[in-house]
């Protein structure tokens, strides 16, 4: 799906397909350098990171493995302590592995901060974070992502894996969702 297919539902395009592709090329090259001689385990956070995982992992030349984790977040927004629960855990034992978390967006930071410490407690050789997007103005908790695609303003975006009510994940680019969509009955 392209933005021309849903003109009334978006405010503006934030990132084109081409911008995303070029950025992933760049970051994949950097990852190849940084992990030379090491075997990488990519851990994707379901389901927003599916597109990032598909497109980033295929650009990496080194051998790697892929696993997935699904988590749910409660108490976000008004509270400062996100309560997080694992819905689907990893298949892989990550002890002594070089882990790179693959995430779509770093917003308050609560999810990735929790996930990083959860994975760290399992004894990996290293844990780093890739996030395609981050909203610096929304950060509530310090989390360091080693690889960041783009900084974006504090607005709700959809597309390229990111959803609103499970929709728009198949949009090829990333766009700001029109606020009318939240208030319309679905
Ligand atoms: P955090 O714990 O950093 O506040 O939130 C991260 C999660 O919130 C992301 O993985 C994503 O699921 C969701 N999220 C945060 N900002 C946005 C956004 O602008 N659009 C969408 N679709 N999801 C978002
Ligand atoms: Mg996510």
TrEMBL record:
Q: Which GO terms describe its biological process?
A: GMP salvage; guanine salvage; hypoxanthine metabolic process; IMP salvage; purine ribonucleoside salvage
Instruction: Name the cofactor(s) required for activity, per the record.
Output: Mg(2+)
Q: Phosphoribosyltransferase domain location, by residue?
A: 13-164
A GO cellular-component term linked to this record: cytosol
A Pfam entry, by short name: Pribosyltran
Q: Is Protein transport set as a keyword in this record?
A: no
Q: Name one GO molecular function term.
A: nucleotide binding
Could you tell me which SUPFAM superfamilies the record lists for this protein? PRTase-like
Which keywords describe this protein according to UniProt?
Answer: Cytoplasm, Glycosyltransferase, Magnesium, Metal-binding, Nucleotide-binding, Purine salvage, Transferase
Pathway listed for it is: Purine metabolism; IMP biosynthesis via salvage pathway; IMP from hypoxanthine: step 1/1
Do you know which PANTHER family this protein is assigned to?
HYPOXANTHINE PHOSPHORIBOSYLTRANSFERASE, HYPOXANTHINE-GUANINE PHOSPHORIBOSYLTRANSFERASE
Name this protein carries in UniProt: hypoxanthine phosphoribosyltransferase
Question: What organism does this protein naturally occur in?
Answer: freshwater metagenome
Taxonomic path: unclassified sequences, metagenomes, ecological metagenomes
């Amino acid at each position: 799906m392209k933005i021309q297919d849903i003109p009334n539902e978006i405010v503006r395009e934030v990132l084109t397909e081409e911008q995303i592709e070029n950025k992933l090329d760049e970051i994949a090259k950097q990852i190849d350098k940084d992990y030379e001689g090491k075997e990488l385990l990519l851990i994707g956070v379901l389901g927003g990171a599916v597109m990032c995982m598909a497109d980033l992992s295929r650009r990496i030349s080194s051998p790697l493995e892929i696993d997935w984790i699904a988590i749910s977040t409660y108490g976000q927004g008004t509270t400062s302590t996100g309560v997080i629960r694992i819905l689907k855990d990893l298949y892989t034992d990550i002890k002594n592995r070089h882990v790179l978390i693959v995430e779509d967006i770093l917003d308050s930071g609560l999810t990735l901060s929790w996930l990083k410490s959860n994975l760290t407690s399992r004894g990996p050789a290293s844990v780093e974070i890739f996030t395609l997007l981050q909203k610096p103005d929304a950060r509530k908790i310090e989390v360091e992502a080693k690889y960041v695609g783009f900084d974006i303003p504090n607005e709700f975006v959809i597309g390229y894996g990111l959803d609103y009510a499970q929709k728009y994940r198949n949009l090829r680019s990333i766009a700001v969702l029109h606020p009318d969509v939240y208030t319309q009955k679905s």
